[in-house]
Amino acid sequence: MRRMFALPVLIAGLAMAAGCSPASEPGIPTANGSAAAGPSAGSADLTAYVGCIRDKGVQVPDPAPGVQPRAWIRQQAEANPAFDAADIACHHLLPAGAEPPAPTISAQELEQLRAFAICMRAHEIEMTDPTPDGNMRIGGRLEHVTRAQLEADPAFKAAHQACKDKLPVESEKK
User: How many domains does the chain have?
Assistant: First the structure.
């Protein structure tokens, strides 16, 4: 289940790039208004990427020195529902290696995910069909909720219960 909504949303966000121009300054403004150090200030220089995320109105902490970019991105996505939209716009600024690898998905699993999405929509949960890598997005009133809020929503729980038999076995385990 986890792969179904948290990771795909992050991966979907990372898979699409839209316009956010790189920061022209070498550092990123921090909470106290000073500029953070340049490329050596975190792992794999997330400076331009973090600046773009902030330009999109999402408040994020500076990555701690030594933190892996993938781990930092995952933490931000889990902590802030608005992060995904900013991530989509700023994806092109990620340093090489910061992006998680796209999951491999068989044609059969893709068709199962499509059947799941159709079923969820039939139960009034707005959900996109899966992309070729298996990513799906929840829309409508549940688009910006946290994972905990999603799992606590009675309509979502009922729809998921009715549709979970359509999920590929691996996705349901997580």
Answer: 2
